[in-house]
Amino acid sequence: MSDALTQRLSSVERDRTHKNIRPSDAATLLILDRTAGGPIRVLMGKRHMRHKFFPGAYVFPGGKVDAADSRAVAADDYHPAVLAKLLHEIGSGKTATRARAFGIAALRETYEEAGIFIGRALGDAAPAKGESFAGFAEAKVLPSLSPFRLVARAITPPNRPRRFDTRFLACWASDIAARTADGLGPSGELEDVAWLTFDDAKKTEIPAITVTILDEVAARLAADPDLAPETPAPFYKWKGKGFVRTLV
């Protein structure tokens, strides 16, 4: 059992008074920067103060998978080892199309929240279609999945007001194809976007799972500095009275 994550849960995160619901597929993206010459930094955004859940907290960009994400055109696919990990224990609908939607959701949300495009120049390729990807077409960028590595997965415990089965993906800042002029995305969900060292990020107000993921990724980078696609990733899910950590 993962006692560290269980013990980190705040009083809000421990609230189990709600009807149990099925977790929704979700994905988030850690963009890592190792060009500054010091500790690796990660892109995080400050949630708007109007949010009911963790207002003002720093989070990785990401969110719920939308139906349109499974239909979006991508320039390429995951590394086979990453795809295999994303297909692990996803129940009904275990298809590569569904797994690809996780990465598309992560990069779409990263644009919508942080104004950053992960992809390749369009060239002669057809743009990704749909209102959610209009920004990509305007920036002449086609979403790209090959840079992504799975660094963790976590499912919200039962009886919480909202539940997500979240895939934590990572890529490097060198994979950024374009950015919006003002450095923010059109959704207005974030008040600010900043590159933080892992230690500085943990000094801010962040959810328990975010602290855990930062610790996991720091340990991964120490042993696997280039994030090899075959390296196992931790999977956190609730069992009994606490989280259980396994490797995928």
Question: Topology of this protein?
Answer:
Layout: H1 3-8, E1 24-33, E2 41-47, E3 58-59, E4 62-64, H2 80-86, H3 96-114, E5 116-121, H4 134-139, E6 141-143, E7 149-155, E8 164-172, E9 176-179, E10 190-197, H5 198-202, H6 208-223, E11 234-239, E12 242-247
Parallel strand pairs: 1-8, 7-11
Antiparallel strand pairs: 1-2, 1-4, 2-3, 2-10, 5-6, 5-9, 7-8, 11-12
Please tell me about this protein's structure.
This protein has 248 residues and is an alpha+beta fold. It has one domain: Alpha-Beta Complex (Nucleoside Triphosphate Pyrophosphohydrolase). It is 24% helix and 29% strand. It has helices at residues 3-8, 80-86, 96-114, 134-139, 198-202, 208-223; strands spanning 24-33, 41-47, 58-59, 62-64, 116-121, 141-143, 149-155, 164-172, 176-179, 190-197, 234-239, 242-247. Strands 1, 2, 3, 4, 7, 8, 10, 11 and 12 form a 9-stranded mixed sheet that branches. The chain has a 3-stranded antiparallel sheet with strand order 6-5-9. A hairpin with an 8-residue loop joins strand 7 (149-155) and strand 8. It is globular. The model has no long low-confidence stretch (mean pLDDT 87).
